[in-house]
Structure formats: C-alpha cells, structure tokens
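Please check this:
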Amino acid sequence: MSIITLVRPPCLISKGTLQGPITPPIGVAYLASSLLKAGHEAHIIDALGEAPFRHHPCFKGRMIAIGLSVIEILKRIPPRSEIIGLSCMFSQDWPYSHRILKAIRVQFPDALLIAGGEHVTAMADDLLRSCPEIDLCVLGEGEEAVVDIANALAAKGDFSRVAGLALRRNGNLLVTEPRARLRALDEIPPPAWELTPIHQYLDNDLGYGVDLGRSMPILATRGCPYQCTFCSNAAMWTPRWYARDPARVLDEIQHYLTHYRATNIDFFDLTAIVKREWILEFCALVKSRGMHFTWQLPSGTRSEAIDRDVCRALHEAGCRNMTYAPESGSPEVLRRIKKKVDLKNLMRSMRGAIREGMNVKTNIIIGFPDETKREVWQTIRFVCKMALAGIHDVSVSMFSPYPGSELFNQMKAAGKLPPLDEGYYLSLSSYTDITATIGWSENLTSRQLAFYRIFALLAFYSLQYAARPWRLVLLIVHFLGNKQVSRLDKSLHDFLKRKDDLPSA
C-alpha cells in the first residue's frame, strides 16, 4: 500500500476576468476513488474548495489566486505522503502550480512528485526540462496510471514499465508506451467526494453553471469526436467520445439528491450531446423515475443532435441552461479551424431551445491567426443575429495559442510564439479578460481586436434588450435580489463579489 496526496491548486485568473470558475475537483476525486479501490491510502488537498472566497493578488498584481496560499497547502499535506500528485488542467494556472511544486519539493524531498492534467499532457517534455521538481508526468486520463504508479512504488518497481508516463532516464526524456483510453466508464468508481470539502461548494451554492441551488458535478461522457484546431482536448482525450449508461448516470444523480441534498446537476462533459438516442433515453428515464432536479450544460455542446423535440425533452427533464459553441460566424474561419458546424442548423437548434424555455448562451472566438477584418465582421453580424433571435448571453473571447492544440503546434513550429515562460502562460488568461486583449492575428492588431470584442458585446446586449426590454428589467431585479438565471447574472455576481473580497486579501 502507498500513501498518496492529490493537490488541486488554487484557481488563477486575471484581474479583469468577469467569472472565475469555482468548481468541485471532479478530476482528483476520480483519481482518489480509483486509488482507494486498489487498496491505497488517498488524501485530497482542494486548495480552491477550502478557501473559495479568499483572493490573493499575485504576479505583481496582474493575477488573482483564489484559494489557499502555498504555505497553507504545505501544512495540509500529510507528512507520511509517499506520492504527492498535482493536477494542472489549464495552462494559465501553470506558473502558480510551478510555485507550489517547488515548495512541495523543499518540504518533502523524498516524496515521489507527479503531475497530470491537460496542461501537463500537452507540455510534458517542457515541464520535465523546466521543472526539475517533477519526477513523473501522467499523460491523458489518470485513473489507471496513478494506481499503477502507486503499485510500482509499493513493489519498488520500474516506472518506465508503467504506460502513459513521461519521465527522465539518464538525463533524457522517456515517454512510456501509450495508455489506451478508458472505454468502460461505468466500471470507474464514482468520485471520492468524501475526501473533498464538497460541502463548501454545496452550502455556498458554488458550481460551474448558473446558481440554481445546491449543485453537484457529473460526467456522463468523456472526450469529444471533433478536432477543432484551437482546442487542446484532443491531446488529452484523443478524438474519441465514450458515453456512460444513462441509467447509471441517473443512479449517481439520485445518490447526490439523497445524500448531499443536491437540487441541481452541472454536467462537466466536453461535448455531452453527440448521440440523439442517448440524450432522449436519459430524459425519458428522468421522467419515468419521477425524478425532480434541474441540470445544466455549461461547457458547450453541439447542435447536430438537438432539434425541437430534443429541446422539449430536455426542458421536461429539468434542463434549464445550455451553452452552444459556434465559435465564429464566418464559414471560411469555421472551415479553417475544422469546426464542423452548419450555422443555419445551429440557429434553428438554438431557437428551438429558447422556445422550449431554455436559457441559452453561446461562445464566440475572434482573432485567429489568419482571420481577416471581413471575417470578424461576419462574426459580429452573426452575434447580432443571435441577439435578435433571443439568445440570452454571449461570450466573445480572444484566440490564444493554447498548448496541446493544432494551431499552437503549427505556430510553435513556424517560430511565431515567444518563449514559453511564465509571461506566456499568464497571457493565456486574456482570452476571458476584456481589459487585456492580446492578439495573435497576422491581419489585425491587438487594439483592433479589443475594439471588435467590445463592439460585439455592446451590439449583442443592446439589440437583445432593445428587442426584449423586459430582460433588462429582469437583469436588474435578479441583481438586486441576488438571483441567477442567466450566465450574465452569474458573471456580474462573481465579479462584484470578488471586488468586495480583494481589499481584505
């Protein structure tokens, strides 16, 4: 038996970011459950969940870390820990995660220090060269790998025989045999929420989506079958999508409703709705079991399988908020970024969702490397069209060359990226910060992109409230009553709450 401590670092955001996602650590909770099932001793340090309202200005005031300080994290790690693992999913978090790893190494010089997550998977070679504190990098899904690492340590075995790792061997980088994707998702033990401060999230109505009450996260599927060139998911998950049995998903939800008194479920899936038959079966089971809860799809979904009948079934089964991800209103841009979406079908799907009572948000990205002014204006026209169609919210983000994505690899190979240092990783946070636009376009300056971004947002909300003035009244009522229905409600609440907390940090 090995003793393993898994660390979920604080959330790192830029000062101008509207919304900092304060979400339960579903990734490390899954890892811990697999370790427990294999007979190992597991601990979780959720630095975000243990102090979700504590904000630390850092990196010369440019960034804000939400959660425990580095010293507090160190104090919570059990001294007997033989393996200490850190999860780094997002590349903009890496500079702070690097600080944590350095501090852990000083205090625990003999522990095996491992790292995993999407950023680690994409940049394992760079991390092993620039961060000597790390012993092993876990590539891709970690449930099986972390158990194999713990078993190898207990047996004093050779880590080079463990699949899905990157490590150093005789001063060189060694990548072990690739590990196959997990397909039997229902055989993975459920997340070990009992090891996390889950009640901090539940009692304070914290979650990924809009605040609809006590929210628990769930994964019904893993992966995404699409290969958008700006997205890093393929490096982590491969372009394969696997779904759980809908009945087993509902069994887990029922446990959350009963054991944790949850009232809402946030689906953390990359692309939850791919197969029409799956989602219709899930909705039918919700009704046949007589279950009553709300649920959301906050991370974005596709439109191909969502017609008016599916929208009706979703709403009847309790779905209240959906996010679509068209990314661009330019057919040429969509073709280049391999975003296989038909804008007419997408608009039809979104209108159907609105008619059936859903609150709909969309994600837009501008500033792709070869995007032109004409193509940006095509996207702005599409944003205006969505506003008039009744879409409730839109985010207009800046393209960032994200590690692990196809565009990142192309730009790196062409020498179009600066050194991958602390400054570069911190700059990636600008994609959600309207006060810090960083452009990577060959045809548009950062200043031009900042104008287009703000213009698109102003145009969207001006047209929406002009066409539906009651929504502006509701926004004010919700704000004064501390109620959330739309993603704008949530963003305003989170941003102002963070501003209130900063002086005491």
In short: The longest strand covers residues 319-327.
